[in-house]
Every structure is written in C-alpha cells, then in structure tokens.
Specification:
It is built from 13 helices and 26 strands. It is of the alpha+beta class. Helix 7 (about 310-330) runs antiparallel to helix 8. The longest helix has 25 residues, at about 340-365.
C-alpha cells in the first residue's frame, strides 16, 4: 500500500474484495483466482491465526479440498480419516448412544476426518501464492463501506501505521467472522436463536507414545458436560462446559485446563497445551446474504454450536456456491440476479445444521440431575432396543437455480477410468465437479453448438457411461456408482453444477432440454425454482 496517512485520490480497483482471510476467504480467493479474476483479500491480522479452531470435517468438505488440489490422501500430515463410532455416555460411563461416523460418504471420501486447521490454512496459502491475480493485504482493517449499483468501496486502514486506502470492487464479500463489520454496514439482519453456552476448548499435543482412547466421546455428565475427540494428526481436543458458579475468566486459566485434563492422564509433563480458550457457543444466522454489491459468507452468515462438527463445513460450502456464480457474473455469462440464489440456497442448508447442532447441545448441556436421569433412561432404553441414532440432516439446497425433485441434491462421486488411464475419482478425471453425465452418449448428439459452448464456458464437461459421440467423454463406471445412482433416481441424465449440487435430472430424450433450461436459467432469462 502507499505511505500516505489519508486515502489516496484514486481507489485501488479489483473484481472482488474479500474482507476476512480465514479458510472461507482463502477458499473463495483460490476459486476466483484460478479463473483469472482480480481478487484482493484484506485481513486485520498481520499473520495467520496460529492455533487450532475447527477440528473435524466431512466427506463433502474433503470433496471440496480435492477440487483445489488438496485431496485428503495427499495431506495426511494435516487431516486423517476417522473410521469409528462417536460415543455418548453419561456421568456413570453408561453408553447412551453410539453414532456411526465410519465409512465412505457419497462424495467419495470418508464420512469423518479430524484435522489441524493452522496446517490446512498454510496449505491454502501455498495455493494462493501461485495465483498472480490474487493479492493478500494483511495488517489492514476495513473501517467504512459505501456502494452504488456497479461497485462497492471499502476504506481500509493499517493497524500499525494508521495509513488509509480506498479499495473499489465490483463485488465485496464479507468473510470477517461472527462480528462482521461488513454485514452490519450493509444493513443485513442477524437472527439469534437464543442459544448461549460457554465452553472451554483445549487443544493438546501429547508426547509420542502417550496412550489414550482414540474414540470420539461426548460425556453427558451433569457435573461437567465435556467432549473428547481427535484433533488432527498427533493432537487431541477436549471441551469442557462452564458451570453456573464459574466465570469465563476462571475457566480460561491454564491451571484450570490442566486440572480438567488430569483425570485423562494428561499433564504438563507429557503434553503441550497448544490452546485453551473460552468460547460462547451460539445459534445465529443472517436473514439475507446479499445487499446490493455486498455478499457475506462463513461465520459472518451463520454460527452454530460445534456438536455436529459442521460450522466450518457450512462456510466452505458457502464459498463453493458463491464462487461459481460470481465467476459466471464477472465473465458476463450470467445476470447478477444469479447471485440472489446464493443466499436462498445456502440459508436453507446452513440453518438445518444450526438447528441440528442446537438439538444435540440441548441433550448434552443438561446439568439438572432429575432432567438428566430422565434423558439417560430414555436414551439407554432406546439404545438397548436397537433404535438407530438420529443421522445428521442431509438437506438439499433452498430455492434457487435448480429444477425438479432431484434439483439441489448433492452429487455422488465414484471411481472411473477414461480409456486406458488409471482408475481415479471422477472429478480428478475431469478437472472439477461441473459435469453433465448421461447413460448413453447418443443423448447428446442433438446438442446444438451454442449450448455446448455455453456449457464449456461454465465449466461443465460432457460425460457418458456408454456409447460414442463427438465431444463426449465415455467412462468406465468402475464400481457401478453412477449406474446405481441413476437407478435410484429413476433417471438417465444428471447435470451437476460446479458446486457439486444437481441442477436437475431427466430421461434420455429430454437431455438437450435440460441443458437448454440450465443455460437459460444461468443467463437470467428463466424462473428461479422453489424446490428444496
């Protein structure tokens, strides 16, 4: 930036300004930067946050990492699969329920991973360093916002020198956390569900060889509800709820953390205390995610208790949904009305996980012995009777750019082979998730050249399970993933958007019409569906 202490006469200009450079802001910068868009990312912190925060992610998240070259099996020092149960017990050690977190999900990756967030952010930074159109400005904070019908202008100030600059962007994204200034300045309403519990979060790096249970455990003990889970390779996390007689300041002291860890055999002699912080778990969301030229994402758009492990996952889904739509608008392939579907689609999905996480917390955070006894009796009876524990929600997208009963569903990913190439996951064969997949290549023989060009411009590949046709890649469905999926849906063709969700599906004879409807809808000349 300049050395002036007042804003320069001519603002710095860019396509997209991202305020906030956590994982969500970084992912969005990568996806836009890879398309060649000019991106400036501003963060008030001079260096990245060095301590763990999120520790778990699901198969959807893994799929997103795969799309930017950070597939979990290539970053084993950062994230590791958890192929086991999630055990809930009471204060007496009785099992209340066991939730199956094992296996491989529909996205082609394990259902559950535990990871070290600072190391993941370092890996994201390395990707960004290779993108010449992305500029990162650390140690500067946003201090004002104005906008008109074509751009948004943010005044930023150095946190060390006080110098100021203006940055004008075609689009502004606030990824600046729960207390988002961008959200507040844009006048976006913040809904609070009235859920507040303080918890001490403790991240520990045990010495090599220290033995402790691998299992993820939720301890529903009225004396002190607590959580114990892996914290990524070589690490462990504990979380302890604040009791009514304690203050956050008392609970947040290092000696209190060691005291609470002592029953688990953890001490300063055999482990390093990497972080101990008191957080207020909340359930909140923004009621709109766009205001003119301003959009919000991540914690600026939603907050949830951590009990379902979906907080950061919701944020990266925001980034993927927003990135392809911003790309289309910036390249003139879509009217900016397409961006209205970002919020309507993502609010529905995010709120479902906020509600689910809160429902888990309402079970976990009970400290009244009588209420807890009734909970224990009910859950033990259900567990003994073989009742299946409640599964996390699998919401589709809310109203937006999709059609029909399958529109908004998450796409599957299986293993495929193209020609004589090696067997790989589908997206690795085609460079990303945007794909039209059909049972037979001849379904695309009548596809007009202009529609093919539009699909290519939007990053949509043409793929068939059998047959031959010009411009259509034919794959071997190695494990029958796609045949089985099509059979379940009762369709012959699916159109997967660049954010891993279906635009819609159809039979062979209507494949061209599905493509035409998609291209027309993206361009803004068609209705926004109300399917969810």
């Amino acid at each position: 930036m300049t050395s002036r202490h007042t804003s320069s006469a001519h603002p710095i200009t860019t396509d997209v300004l991202i305020v906030g450079f956590g994982p969500v802001g970084k992912l969005l910068a990568i996806m836009l930067g890879r398309q060649g868009h000019r991106v400036i990312a501003v963060d008030r912190n001079e260096v990245g946050y060095p301590l763990p925060r999120a520790v778990t992610h699901c198969s959807d998240f893994a799929h997103i990492l795969q799309s930017i070259g950070l597939a979990p099996d290539t970053i084993g020092h950062i994230t590791e699969p958890y192929d086991d149960m999630y055990r809930w017990c009471n204060g007496d050690g009785d099992t209340l329920v066991e939730v199956d977190w094992s296996g491989v999900g529909e996205s082609g990756w394990y259902n559950t991973y535990f990871f070290h967030q600072p190391s993941l952010e370092d890996a994201l930074d390395e990707v960004i360093e290779g993108l010449p159109s992305v500029r990162v400005v650390r140690g500067w904070e946003a201090i004002s916002l104005s906008q008109d019908h074509v751009s948004a202008t943010v005044e930023i100030r150095s946190v060390t020198t006080g110098e100021q600059e203006l940055v004008t962007a075609r689009w502004l994204v606030g990824a600046d956390g729960a207390g988002s200034r961008i959200r507040q300045w844009a006048g976006i309403e913040w809904h609070n569900d009235g859920y507040f519990f303080d918890w001490l979060v403790v991240d520990v790096k045990p010495q090599p060889g220290l033995d402790f249970p691998h299992i993820a455990t939720q301890n529903c003990d009225t004396r002190r509800p607590s959580t114990m889970v892996p914290g990524g390779p070589g690490r462990r996390r504990w979380e302890f709820m604040r009791l009514p007689h304690e203050t956050p300041e008392h609970l947040g002291r290092p000696d209190k953390a060691w005291e609470l860890l002592a029953p688990y055999g953890i001490s300063s002699e055999n482990a390093k205390l990497e972080r101990h912080s008191v957080y207020t778990f909340q359930a909140c969301w923004a009621t709109d995610w766009r205001a003119g030229r301003v959009l919000i994402a991540g914690d600026a758009a939603h907050l949830m208790p951590p009990f379902a492990g979906q907080g950061l996952g919701a944020g990266v889904r925001d980034a993927v949904n927003l990135a392809w739509k911003l790309d289309a608008v910036l390249r003139g392939l879509a009217d900016d009305a397409l961006l209205d579907t970002y919020g309507t689609e993502r609010i529905h999905h995010a709120v479902a996980f906020v509600k689910f996480s809160t429902s888990l917390g309402q079970v976990i955070c009970i400290t009244d012995p009588t209420e807890a006894k009734a909970r224990d009796e009910r859950m033990i009876t259900d567990w003994s009777a073989g009742m299946t524990p409640p599964a996390p929600p699998r919401p589709g997208l809310g109203p937006g750019l999709h059609t029909g009963p399958t529109g908004g569903m998450l796409a599957r990913q299986g293993r495929v082979r193209v020609g004589s190439d090696d067997v790989v996951l589908f997206d690795d064969a085609f460079g990303g998730p945007g794909t039209l997949i059909t049972r037979r290549a001849d379904a695309l023989e009548g596809l007009p050249a202009d529609l093919r060009e539009r699909l290519t411009a939007l990053g949509i590949s043409l793929v068939a399970l059998s047959g031959t046709a010009d411009g259509v890649a034919v794959i071997e469905d190695v494990d029958g993933t796609y045949q089985e999926w099509f059979d379940e849906l009762g369709v012959d063709t699916v159109l997967v958007r660049p954010d891993f969700h279906l635009y819609g599906s159809t039979m062979i004879d209507d494949t061209v019409k599905l493509v035409d409807d998609f291209v027309t809808s993206v361009a803004g000349r068609s209705r926004v569906s109300a399917n969810s």
